[in-house]
Specification:
Largest sheet: 5 strands, mixed
Distance between the termini: 77 Å
Helix content: 55-70%
Oligomer: single chain
Radius of gyration: 45 Å
Number of domains: 3
Order of helices and strands: HHHHHHHEHEEHEEH
Shape: elongated
Number of helices: 10
Strand content: 5-15%
Strand order of the largest sheet: 1-2-3-5-4
Number of strands: 5
């Protein structure tokens, strides 16, 4: 839009030069042609725009009245960074007598105006470009800062999660080491009292005391197990197993599990991943391993596969039997296949696990 406004300003000055011609027909035609050529330059680019400017400049040099439109051609040439396209207009020197001094003065004033408007618009565009670049850099910096803040928040949440897990482990140990031992000693003392007791009136109260202590011991044991299970960080255990893999393997982990996975399933999956990766290191001749843990609405999925060559699968191995026992302990199923490499695939149905727990 600013370019059109600049051209309109230049054209208004040039119009005064056209009006000073003796005949009206040729100046009007020259004015219309010059406007048409300048409009074409506005729409064209590259060689076509340059040829249009050169044509207009040649007309300015050969048709005296047309010389009044030279500032328009000059402005377009400056915008195209090719000021030398206006050199053909120098031919007007041979027919300069056909123009009045006032027309030459107006054309010169219009040319100076064209140069000034070009410089002003160039500076304006440069300033707009700098502002746009600054805006983009600021937006990029804000995005990077947001990403860094998100990573810091995630790291902070992980630290809180690990601290919570450590505290739960500490509480579980304290209960097991102190309260559990005292209850065990009390149970032994109650049993000894029942054995040596001769008073029949105390037999029933002592049996009740022993049952109460047994119930308390069972409740404490379940609470300790729950605390321990909740403190298991499955992702950390899996990552630790991956970090222990031989450096000749590139291990890619896909982890999509919530924090609500039952503790026994976490232990099962961590054990299978550890055993599976150990099996890969011992027997695979490949160099890549994919480990996938996903949680679906109806089941949990674990897959470990490598890109090595695989012969006949012998399930009587201790490692494979151990993984099968782990899967069965939580109501899951596991398979070992040769699929362009050795592949371990385990599924634990949620409903199946609940039934096996009950």
């Amino acid at each position: 839009m600013s370019r059109l406004i600049d051209k309109l300003s230049i054209l208004l000055i040039c119009l005064a030069g056209f009006c000073m011609a003796d005949d009206i027909t040729v100046p009007v035609a020259a004015l219309l042609v010059s406007v048409a050529l300048s409009s074409l330059v506005q729409m064209l680019t590259g060689v076509r725009a340059a040829l249009t400017i050169a044509l207009g400049s040649a007309l300015c040099g050969t048709v005296p009245v047309f010389f009044c439109a030279l500032p328009l051609m000059l402005y377009d040439a400056l915008r195209e960074k090719k000021w030398w396209l206006t050199i053909p207009a120098a031919l007007i020197l041979f027919r300069l007598r056909e123009l009045s001094s006032m027309q030459l003065l107006i054309t010169a004033a219009a040319a100076v105006t064209a140069v000034i408007l070009y410089i002003r618009s160039s500076h304006l565009e440069k300033a707009v470009g700098n502002l746009t670049q600054m805006r983009d850099k600021t937006a990029e910096a804000n995005m990077q800062l947001s990403g860094q803040n998100l990573r810091l928040a995630e790291a902070y949440d992980n630290e809180i999660h690990l601290a919570t897990m450590r505290e739960r482990n500490r509480i579980a140990r304290e209960i097991h080491d102190n309260v559990g031992h005292m209850l065990t000693r009390s149970l032994l003392q109650a049993g000894a009292l029942i054995i040596i007791n001769k008073d029949e009136s105390l037999k029933e109260p002592l049996e009740g005391l022993k049952n109460t202590l047994n119930n308390a011991m069972t409740s404490i044991r379940e609470s300790v197990h729950d605390l321990h299970d909740d403190s298991i960080d499955l992702k950390k255990l899996v990552q630790d197993s991956i970090n222990a893999v031989d450096k000749r393997f590139t291990v890619r982990l896909e982890y999509d599990m919530s924090e609500n996975v039952p503790g026994k399933i976490r232990l099962c999956m961590a054990g299978v991943v550890r055993e599976g990766l150990s099996n890969v290191v011992k027997h695979s001749d490949g160099d890549r391993v994919n480990v996938v843990l996903r949680e679906h609405p109806g089941f949990y999925q674990l897959m470990i596969e490598d890109n090595g060559s695989c012969g006949e699968i012998k399930k009587e191995g201790i490692g494979l039997r151990t993984m099968e026992e782990r899967a069965e302990s939580v109501g899951g199923s596991i398979s070992f296949t040769n699929n362009n490499g050795f592949r371990i695939f385990m599924i634990i149905k949620r409903q199946g696990y609940e039934n096996s727990s009950n």
